[in-house]
## 1
Amino acid sequence: MPEILSRLPPPAARRRALLLGGLSLGALVLAETFKPRQLLAHSRAAYDYETLIPPRFGEWTQLPLQQGQIVDPGLTETLSRFYSQTVTRAYLDEAQTLVMLSLAYGEVQSDAMRVHLPEVCYTAQGFDVTSLGERPLQLGATAIPLSLAAAVQGQREEMIAYFVRVGESVVGRGMRRKLAQMEYSLHGLIPDGLLVRVSSFNHDVESAFGLHQRFITQLFDATGPLPRQAIFGRASA
């Protein structure tokens, strides 16, 4: 018996082990208790982006475009795992300026949805992508954070502007999206997510930003309450 007792850990070590075990168990119980279970998307009418995005608005008219001319067909299967809807359009204005629009919507906003962000999607297609920071775009009473990027592949240079809606509002880059998800989780909700990407063949940042700003603003002005909420979220106070 003394031999067995000598091999037991000292009382202080046993207490620490018991304490750590109890804390781990408590963390698991709390995580399960506060795990979000209700999809925010199921608390309101479903959005059909193919019909919500108008073929003509402001100065812009939709061009016939086959799916896959903007998004590499090789990514289609990957995208379908994370998004329930994707829409790809091309528009011309009166001066024959081409702008491409891409939307990717998922009922569950998760880290896996990053697959459609330009920094991931374009890189997967062989582009060199450079982030150009973030700028506010004033839409009505709300300023949305617009992320900018440049994608280059050989002679093709594409300027990109995009934003992400998490739940009911457009949020900025990085940790701000994660914090928005966590806020919904605290209320037992799983937010949906939408990525809206606008791009054009351009090599000048300021010229492209002005063009994309005009395109997005005219889309916002042309939409009614339901499509505006579906694309841009609820207006902040």
## 2
Amino acid sequence: MTRPVFRRLALLAALSAASLFAAVLPAGADIRGSKLQPTVIPNPYQVHGRSRPLACNDNTTIGQEGCQERQNLTLISVLNADQRVIFGLLHDNAARRRLNTAQVAWLSYAKADCVSQSDVYEGGSEAPVIAGVCLVSQDTARIADLKTFYSMLIQATARPPAFPEPPAAS
């Protein structure tokens, strides 16, 4: 298998990991009395046998891919924290299940959108970098959406929990 084809397959697998595992095994599964939990986005690099993202280096495409992976992991951590805060503010399990459903649907959308955007460079070494840039953009937008949702939820709350702030852009 040629390197570009292998990298493309690896990209698709990495982008699929979060939505696949969230859809198949959501932490919020309401299975026979188990406690309902918020959907958690897993670390896609651990799922595929890597213990960490690639090294960040703006001078190479693999290094650029690593920079995007590292930024994406940071944003995944924020998204998971945001999801937990909002989940705890919801008034019943039906609302919590709807939040989990929305998160799984968003993960599926983000994956499909980023794979589509990377098709511009299909077969090339830049495809995973473009997908990474897209994922960072999608994650940032989702964080903003969740922050808006949080703001609506706390309007009638006397002492709401703090909302996690995303790290400053580097």
## 3
Amino acid sequence: MQETTAILIFGNTAAREAAVKDFTLGGGQHRNQQIADRLIRKTLATAHQSGLPVLTCMGNQQRGSSFGERLANAIEGVYALGYEQVIAIGTDSPELNAAQLTQTQELLQQYPAVYGPATDGGVYLIGLRADTYERDHFLKLAWQGEQLQASIAQAHKQAVVWLGEACDIDSAEDLYAYLTNHNGTWEAQLLSILYSSLVHLTHYLDTPPTADYTVSHQLRGPPPVAYAT
């Protein structure tokens, strides 16, 4: 029997993220791309840990003239594959864990939508059911704006569930704030990249890493989302 819920990873490629975001305070394209790549790998690992099917829609796989339209098309593409519930996540929220993904799957059995609010006013997770999804309402949400959470609350006629708040990593300041609140092997990889750059980071970070923090992740995954026509 086919699983009815799929995780959709929707975001930029590492190269594109590095072109539009500076994670290293001017450390250069290469260092920024290394950080973006680690964030993508972390997201893939978390998604697969949930045990749910994982689909990706990255970079040129996306279709549409606006962010909302591209995301809507990707979600509808997952529905077209036969899934009844979609959990869409980005690649810039390392606080997301597998337990939240399975919790969202369970909540969608009772509620039309589940959202994970980000600290910047956006969302890091969107859980939607096919039987209650409405494209027109979805496109009217204030995508990529500080009022997104408010517009979501206004758009839904039925009760939705909000998970706990989590951070998005969009800048060097965001990355520093995350690293100061988390201390583990994966976070040390990010520190290692930061300290290997030629940028002076002493304003943000006091002590360099003192061990070899190399960790590898498998990037094998399912094929890209097939889009509905």
## 4
Amino acid sequence: MTVYARSRLHSLPAPAEPTCCLFCDFEGHFAGETGAAFADPGTDRLLSLLDAHGLRITFNVVADLCRSHPQRIARIRDAGHEIACHGYRHERPRDLSRANLDNMLQGALACFAELGVRPIGFRSPESAWSVPLLPALARHGFRWNAERDPAAGPYRISRELIRFPVRTDDWDLTDRAASDDPASAIRLLLDKWTTHAQASTHRSGLLLIGVHEWVFGLRSGFDDALGTWLARCKRDGWQLRTISDVADGLTRTS
């Protein structure tokens, strides 16, 4: 990592109670033909699941969906979920010049503003972030960044920006084995998540897990199985919170 990042890293305290931040990378047709075909039914299933369990989560939304599918994004907003940014048109920050990073963030914020949304969090598509992205996020008023990261827990990259390490996601449900036996694939995925949760209690006490709305449409039964898993987490004492809620708590205590 460059001098910019190394000089500013500062580990943040663990939450008082084990905390899970479930988030959704909300991609629609930017995930390809499968995403386009299954985004609407997947959105229905995911929002119904969250409503049934009284949960608010973080949706990392590709900003251009605010223009191509505004009603879909309005449903998330009106249900009270956090909306964060997942790029302007699902571009990888690693592939962008410094000038184009600023253009991407400006374009994304303009899209969200049309629906009265001002995100403070950013997650890179494919976690393909870059070091120049970090000061660009701070310049544009973002307060947190969530990426694949081997760090044990969250840390402050700069005075303005907190990094949240993402531990795992639902990508296992998109491969051929999942198509052949989806019920087993879902069970194996949630077993893996449980292993990550157990490890997190000995690391930072914070676990970030990602899903995709179109995977809920693609894999029937994922919503019911995830609901059971989330209920077990709650019984085991885990708090389920949005990323911004956790960021706010860390800002107050650090």
